[in-house]
Amino acid sequence: MPALKVIIFGANGAVGKAAALEAHRKGASVTLALRDVFKTIAGLPDLPRVKADLTDPSSLREAIRTSGATAAFVYTMNDMEPAFEALKESGVDYVVLLSSWTIYPNDVEKAATSHAIPARHAKAEIALKASGLKYSAIRARYFASNVVFESAAVKKGQVDVLNPDGVNDYIAPEDIGTVSGAKLFSEPEIVPIIGARLLTEREAWRIIANELDCPIKINELDYDEFVNRKGISLAIGTAYPDEIKYPLKLRPVGLENVRKYAGRDPMTFEEWVKIHRKEFLS
Length: 282
Ligand SMILES: NC(=O)c1ccc[n+]([C@@H]2O[C@H](COP(=O)([O-])OP(=O)(O)OC[C@H]3O[C@@H](n4cnc5c(N)ncnc54)[C@H](OP(=O)(O)O)[C@@H]3O)[C@@H](O)[C@H]2O)c1
Description:
single chain; alpha/beta; Rossmann fold; two-stranded parallel ribbon; binds NADP nicotinamide-adenine-dinucleotide phosphate; NAD(P)-bd_dom_sf; Ergot_Alk_Oxidoreductase
């Protein structure tokens, strides 16, 4: 049987790269679609590259024509209707979209009118459904890599936190990408996924401090201060009670989906921090 031809948009991103690796490992003929085809991508084999931008439909048509791909991994962008139309017209029949767990409890229409993070991803899912393409939506909530945005604060030994005793799942982008790459080979579905363990922000920063062997003090901000510094959407998502963020029924489903598609348990936050420790120091 000829190899499945897949195209990975954003193949130099943390999730895109892992999706490309998994699709390659599973035997697909993989094309890497990049805005800059000359970018060095450490850890990927030498695979064909095409230049493409998800906000430029003509570049998508050209990328699909060159690659002959019928399945595509895409990141969520704003206003994706023209992108999905271009992919479909050019011969793609199945899309795996990186979406968000915040579209809970599975109410896409309601999420589309919510605040920025769920709304953006829900609108992309709605556009994908309307396109008539077959699709899977990989819904992840809180990437482990979010902590690296605080690396300047880590160097100063103090991080600003709202709700330090609230939990996050700290899923590894590598796991999200592996599930996404595997999903290119299987039936369309909505796939909520979750990290190995829910950790409070306090616990997460303690893990980072231990790994970096440096003290990190928690500076608890009030809601308005946090909104001023980080934006309203992140504040709303952070302030939700744990059982709203992570509905009890959905937690085992998210874990099982990682095991099913990645073929292993999700990476723990401790493992992820160890692998990425240099990113806090650069
Ligand atoms: N952080 C969270 O907790 C969270 C939760 C749920 C979902 N998400 C989603 O995850 C995404 C981040 O994933 P990541 O960690 O893999 O990010 P990343 O490492 O920063 O990679 C993002 C990738 O998207 C590519 N990209 C950006 N704009 C593009 C465009 N117009 N056309 C084609 N490619 C484009 C980038 O390419 P260039 O190198 O050319 O810029 C890069 O390859 C967020 O954007 C969000 O949608 C995040």
